[in-house]
Design goal:
Order of helices and strands: HHHEEE
Helix content: 40-55%
Distance between the termini: 108 Å
Low-confidence stretches: none
Structural class: alpha+beta
Radius of gyration: 28 Å
Number of domains: 1
Strand content: 15-25%
Mean pLDDT: 82
Number of helices: 3
Shape: rod-shaped
Length: 141
C-alpha cells in the first residue's frame, strides 16, 4: 500500500509553478480582449446615437422657418444623453431657404472622446452619421 502513495506524489511536485506562469501569460491577453469588447460596444452605442441624432436634427430643420441652430440644439440634446460633448454638425443647404428641396444633416464625432476605458483602440477613428429628408415647402405661391 505504501508503494502506491509514494509513486503518485513525485509526479506533481515538479509542475507547481507552471499554472502561475500560464496564468500570468494568459491574463493580460484575456483582459485586453474584454476591455476591447467594452470599447467597441460603446462605439457602436455612440454610432447608433449619432445616426438617431442626425435623423432627429434633420426632422427639426426640414420645416419652414427652422435654422441650423435648431439642428445643433436637437443633436446636442440627444448626444448629451450618451455623454458626447464634442461633435461637428453640418447642415446642407446652409442657410435653409424656401427653395431647398432636400435637407441633409451630417454629424462627425471623434471616437477617442467616446471611450469608457482606453482610447487606444479608437485613437484615429471618427464616427460619421448623416440623414437626408425632403424639405416641407409650400410651392403654391
Amino acid at each position: 500500500m505504501k508503494n502506491k502513495l509514494q509513486s503518485r506524489t513525485p509526479k506533481h511536485g515538479n509542475r507547481r509553478g507552471v499554472t502561475m506562469v500560464e496564468f500570468s501569460v494568459v491574463l493580460p491577453v484575456f483582459l485586453m480582449i474584454v476591455f476591447a469588447g467594452f470599447e467597441f460596444s460603446r462605439i457602436c452605442l455612440v454610432r447608433n446615437a449619432a445616426h438617431n441624432a442626425a435623423y432627429q436634427a434633420t426632422r427639426r430643420v426640414m420645416v419652414p422657418g427652422a435654422t441650423v441652430a435648431d439642428a445643433n440644439a436637437e443633436a446636442s440634446r440627444l448626444l448629451s444623453i450618451f455623454g458626447v460633448r464634442t461633435f461637428t454638425l453640418t447642415v446642407n443647404p446652409n442657410p435653409i431657404t424656401l427653395a431647398a428641396t432636400r435637407v441633409t444633416v451630417s454629424i462627425d464625432i471623434p471616437a477617442n472622446q467616446c471611450g469608457w476605458i482606453m482610447p487606444m483602440f479608437t485613437n484615429n477613428l471618427t464616427i460619421h452619421a448623416g440623414s437626408t429628408l425632403f424639405a416641407e415647402r409650400d410651392r403654391t405661391y
